[in-house]
Amino acid sequence: TSEGGGHHGSVTRGRGGRVVTRADGGRYVCRASNRHGVAVRSVLVTVEYRPSIGERGCPERRRWLEGTPAQLGCAATGNPRPRVTCAKLGDNRDVPDATEPGDHRDPAEATTNVTRAHAGTYQCRATNAHGSAVRNVTVAVEYGPGGVTVTALPSANVTRGGGFTVDCGAEGVPAPTYTWALPPAPNLRLAADNRSVTVTGATVANRGVYTCTASNRHGRRAGSVVVRVDESWLAALAALGALGAVAALGLAVAGGYYMKTTACKKGEYNVRDAEGSSEAACLHRHRGDRGDVFGIQLTQP
Question: Over 60: is that where the pLDDT of 268 sits?
Fold first, then answer.
C-alpha cells in the first residue's frame, strides 16, 4: 500500500513491471505477515524526470522597466530540481533568475539595472541530471518619455499673415501621447495625433510660448518654443511708401524744372558751331526778324 499521494491500495507487480509516472511517487508501506506475526516497513519512492518549461511559469513575452533590476524569472519543473539560466541570444552573459532561492550571485551582477539595450530575445534553459528544456522569451524594455523636441517650422519668427507649424516629438515606450499649452487664439488647428499645431493667417494673438507635454504610464516630460509674430514690415512698407512719394515728387519737380529751363523747343536753331557735335543743350533765346531764335551749346562726346 502507499501513503501521501502515491498509488493507493495493493500494488501488484507483474513480470516486466510497468511504466512509472510521476503519480507513482510517495510513501509505500510494505507489510509481511504469516501465522506467527507481522512485519511492516515503509518506503519513500521518488520519481525523477527531466525538466520542462511551460507558459504559466515562463511567459514568452515580458516587459521590463528601465532602471529596475534586470531579473528574468522563468520557472521550470523537474526532479531533481533543474537549474535555470537565461541569456540574450548573441550575448553570453546570463541574466539572474528571480525564481531560484538561495542563489548566491556576484553583487555586481545582482545590482545590474535594466537599460534599453536589454530589449531582445532570451533563451532560457532548464537542466538536471535527466536532460534539459529550452524556451525563448521576448523582452521589451519600457521607459518614460525623453528627448522631447518642440520645433516651429519654417521658423519661430513669423510674419504677420503668414503660416507656421509647431511639431512635437519624444521617445518613450509605450509611445507617448501629447498635450499642449497654447496662446489663446482662434486659428489653431491640432493634428489628429496631437503631435503638431498648425496656424494660418498669423496675428499677434499667435505669439507666445507653445508647450508640449509627452506622457505615458511611466512619466511625463515637457518642452517649449517661443513664437514671435513680426509686424515691423508694416512700418517698413509705410516708410517705403512715403519715400516713394517723396521721390516721385522730387522727380516731378526736377522734370518741371528741366522742361522749363533746358528742354529744347521746336523751332529754328543757330547751328553755326554744330559740326562734329552729338549733344546740345538750349541756353538762351533772342528775338530776330523771323521770331524766336535759340542759341545752343555743343559738347564733345
Answer: no
Strand partners, 180: 212
Domain enclosing residue 125, as ranges: 51-98+107-143
What pTM, to 2 d.p., does this model score? Answer: 0.59
SS3 string, 51-103, reads EECCCCCCCCEEEEECCCECCCCCCCEEECCCEEEEEECCCCCEECCCCCCCC
Is 240 among the domain residues?
A: no
CB 187 within 8 A of CB 201: yes
Angle (nearest 5°) at CA 72 between 70 and 74: 165
Q: Distances from the Cα of 15 to the Cαs of 12, 18, 163, 209, in angstroms?
A: 10, 9, 94, 90
Backbone angles phi, psi at 122, to 5 degrees: -115, 150
Q: Does the pLDDT value for residue 134 go beyond 50?
A: yes
